[in-house]
Amino acid sequence: MANQTKPIIHGYFRSSCSWRVRIAFALKGIEFDQVPVNLIKDGGQQFTEQYKGLNPMQQVPAVQIDGITLSQSLAVIQYIEKTRTGHRLLPADPKKRAQVRMISDLIASGIQPVQNLYVLQKIGAEKVQWAHHFIQRGFEALEPILKETAGKYCVEDEISMADICLVPQVYNAERFKVDVDQFPTIKRLNQTLLKVDAFKETHPSCQLDTPAEICT
């Protein structure tokens, strides 16, 4: 498909869903522009009427691409998989593809939503303990699955949508003081993936005016 204009990611640097899309675009070699949506400033820029017009759920990211706006990270990833060449994000083999989707959904539906910013703001003073509990619980389920499916990456030896979901979730786990050493497969995969340019260069720390050491 011809790409006449660059896609625009409306996102927040620390949002794991926004990071997933940045990684996917980088793996595909897709150039993109970014419009920052600060989830903290002014009570949350995602709650403005202007942004609500892009994403009625008032979440990030919202991605403008090919004349449409998509507002769920996995939908964006699967759209570019169908419409762009470059690195394959979903395996051709149906069993491997199902495993990639299982891992992706476990993270994107089973872990991340219950520790996202909006939920934590509702929880209040116990937000850190809440996030820690649900990430810990999710990783306890994810670790034995990855022991069965992983090679160099989440599903054998090709980077896929599962890896795109895993790395931002480990970043969240570390933010909420989950001891990732308990999960040796998750830890190994994360360390391996953070050496890949598409993951390293799109890291939240690399979206700041003064990038961190990981970005170099």
TrEMBL record:
Single GO cellular component term: mitochondrion
Q: Which UniProt keywords are given for this protein, alphabetically ordered?
A: Cytoplasm, Isomerase, Phenylalanine catabolism, Transferase, Tyrosine catabolism
Pathway membership of this protein?
Amino-acid degradation; L-phenylalanine degradation; acetoacetate and fumarate from L-phenylalanine: step 5/6
Q: Which Pfam families match?
A: GST_C (PF00043), GST_N_2 (PF13409)
The organism's place on the tree of life at top rank: Eukaryota
What's any GO biological process attached to this entry? Answer: L-phenylalanine catabolic process
Which PROSITE patterns is this protein grouped with?
GST_CTER, GST_NTER
In the record, what terms sit under GO molecular function?
A: glutathione transferase activity; maleylacetoacetate isomerase activity
Cofactor dependence is on: glutathione
Species assigned in the record: Salvelinus namaycush (Lake trout)
* Domain GST C-terminal: start-end pairs: 93-212
In short, the EC number is 2.5.1.18, 5.2.1.2
Where does the record say this protein resides? Cytoplasm
Which reaction is catalysed here? RX + glutathione = an S-substituted glutathione + a halide anion + H(+); 4-maleylacetoacetate = 4-fumarylacetoacetate
Q: Which family does it belong to?
A: Belongs to the GST superfamily. Zeta family.
Keyword Isomerase assigned to the entry: answer is yes
Q: What is the lineage of its organism?
A: Eukaryota, Metazoa, Chordata, Craniata, Vertebrata
Q: What is this protein called?
A: Maleylacetoacetate isomerase
Q: Which Gene3D superfamilies match?
A: 1.20.1050.10, Glutaredoxin
Domain (GST N-terminal): give its ranges: 5-88
